[in-house]
Inverse folding.
């Protein structure tokens, strides 16, 4: 039995929730968020199933810090290196945001691999979640492409020569390799336009694709639900027992209940 | 009123083609103008058919009062065969596709083509022949395109081989490692005290004499002898070379080319010459079959 609420508290709650109700009535967004957040999951899932949202969090950190770094970075061969020195040494907290972006990149990649390992070892890629796995593999490739394109941007000797090697590695692919290499370097060799091209790839094209595919990936997760671990004793497709009366239902006020409160 | 026709759509396509052509080329403009003219003519002919006297072809109306139900039943499948909504759906998708294509194709072209077009080797003046002692390597660094700046700085190893049948002979090797493109370094002393910076009017070229026993790459340990042949490590061919010319007693470098293998040394060397290829790509042997199409440089 839920504790009875005082009239004052009820009125307060109503006032606080009014804007949410307003939005919900017009857009259905609150219901959508509820649908996303308050899903049924198997009772025996645990920390390993949080690796996906950890990866998502790492990506969001990369997005936010990257957007802010873009306010100060200059993708021009003559000023790129200096602009990064400026961010790191002159601007207040610039070292922190750049550090978050730099180390966060590794965290993002590592978490992607952990997440993939969890899905693989738990067999969660099996029917009906094959498409989720395929989208995830594309996301892994795009994530590594982010790392590859971002590596050039500091425009120091490590960045430059690692990128030369990376481009020429692509160049050794049979048949189309030399064309891929020449496309990536924007000409026969790295020139004045290459840095800006990679910057555009790094901050617009690849992240755009990643955001789109993450949306699809998440939609598939919501639609298909989370799989039970292989050692689960619950039979697949077990219905959740009915919610306890008075239990929390979500963000908005629960529908008016019947007489059980009185 | 004449029945609706498709001519205006053709006319619109022609006009669009003409406008795009104004940006792209006169040929496209011409094609667009021709399309627009032809379809305009057809459209006008269609519209003025009544005026010009030709008997318009009119579908006979069928309205049998007695067999109304039957007529309706007969009309129904005909209406279903191509209803207005299907036409509108097709028109929306079709026109959307055309507009999308008109926008996408030039953008895609601009994404890809600049990397492959207008790629020319610049001829660059390195310095007077007297700077290149016979039998000695000179490390020359220069900017491939001074207008683009330091990002185009390149290094070549130049050796004066003396004369071959009365003609001057030079070995000029590009420092780009043919494994994965790192900068190859000379294995031997560099005579910094004899280094020179020569201004040729367009840029300053740096010349540093050296006495290498070979060349080595710092990245993955590829090793080459003084002819550019691989002696150890992962490279798949000999070092790339450059053509040269001599103008007014000065050495100029020209086009880059790739080299399979070099037989012999110095002026007597016999070189298997190929078009410039990406590092790491075989130019000879069975592996070269994997790279049948060279990239236009």
């Amino acid at each position: 039995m839920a504790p009875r609420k005082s009239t004052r508290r009820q009125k307060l709650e109503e006032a606080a929730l009014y804007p949410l109700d307003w939005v919900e009535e017009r857009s259905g967004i609150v219901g959508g968020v509820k649908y996303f957040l308050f899903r049924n999951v198997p009772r025996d899932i645990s920390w390993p199933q949080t690796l996906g949202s950890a990866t998502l969090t790492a990506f969001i950190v990369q997005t936010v810090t990257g957007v802010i770094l873009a306010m100060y970075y200059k993708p021009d061969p003559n000023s790129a290196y200096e602009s990064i020195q400026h961010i790191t040494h002159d601007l207040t907290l610039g070292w922190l945001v750049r550090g978050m972006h730099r180390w966060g990149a590794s965290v993002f990649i590592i978490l992607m691999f952990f997440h993939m390992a969890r899905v693989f070892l738990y067999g969660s890629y099996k029917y009906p979640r094959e498409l989720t796995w395929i989208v995830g593999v594309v996301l892994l490739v795009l994530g590594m492409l982010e790392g590859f394109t971002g590596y050039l941007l500091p425009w120091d000797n490590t960045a430059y020569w690692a990128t030369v090697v990376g481009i020429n590695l692509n160049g050794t692919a049979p048949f189309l390799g030399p064309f891929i290499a020449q496309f990536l370097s924007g000409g026969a060799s790295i020139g004045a336009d290459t840095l800006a091209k990679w910057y555009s790839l790094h901050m617009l094209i690849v992240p755009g694709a990643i955001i789109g595919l993450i949306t699809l990936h998440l939609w598939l997760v919501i639609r298909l639900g989370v799989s039970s671990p292989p050692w689960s004793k619950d039979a697949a497709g077990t219905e959740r027992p009915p919610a306890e009366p008075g239990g929390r239902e979500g963000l908005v006020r629960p529908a008016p209940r019947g007489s059980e409160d009185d | 009123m004449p029945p609706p026709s498709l001519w205006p759509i053709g006319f619109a396509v022609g006009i669009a083609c003409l406008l795009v052509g104004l940006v792209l080329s006169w040929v496209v403009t011409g094609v667009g103008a021709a399309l627009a003219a032809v379809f305009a003519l057809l459209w006008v002919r269609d519209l003025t058919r009544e005026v010009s006297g030709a008997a318009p072809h009119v579908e006979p109306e069928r309205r049998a009062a007695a067999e109304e139900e039957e007529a309706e039943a007969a009309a129904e499948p005909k209406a279903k065969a191509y209803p207005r909504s299907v036409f509108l759906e097709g028109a929306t998708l079709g026109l959307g596709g055309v507009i999308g294509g008109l926008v996408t194709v030039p953008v895609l072209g601009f994404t890809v083509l600049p990397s492959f077009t207008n790629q020319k080797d610049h001829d660059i003046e390195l310095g007077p022949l007297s700077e290149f002692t016979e039998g000695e390597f000179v490390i020359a660094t220069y900017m491939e395109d001074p207008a683009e700046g330091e990002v185009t700085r390149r290094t070549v190893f130049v050796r004066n081989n003396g004369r071959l049948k009365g003609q001057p002979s030079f070995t000029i090797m590009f420092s780009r490692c043919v494994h994965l493109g790192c900068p190859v370094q000379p294995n031997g002393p560099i005579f910094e005290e004899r280094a020179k910076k020569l201004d040729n009017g367009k840029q300053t070229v740096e010349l540093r004499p050296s006495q290498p026993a070979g060349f080595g790459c710092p990245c993955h340990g590829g090793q080459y002898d003084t002819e550019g042949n691989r002696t150890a490590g992962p490279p798949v061919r000999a070092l790339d070379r450059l053509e040269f010319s001599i103008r007014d007693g000065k050495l100029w470098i020209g086009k880059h080319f790739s080299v399979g293998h070099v037989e012999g040394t110095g002026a007597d060397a016999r070189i298997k010459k190929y078009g410039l290829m990406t590092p790491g790509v075989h130019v000879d042997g069975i592996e070269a079959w994997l790279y049948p199409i060279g990239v236009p440089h």
The two ends of chain A are 10 Å apart (CA to CA). Chain A touches chain B at residues 77-78, 161, 164-165, 167-169, 171-172, 174-175, 177-179, 181-183, 185-194 (CB under 8 Å).
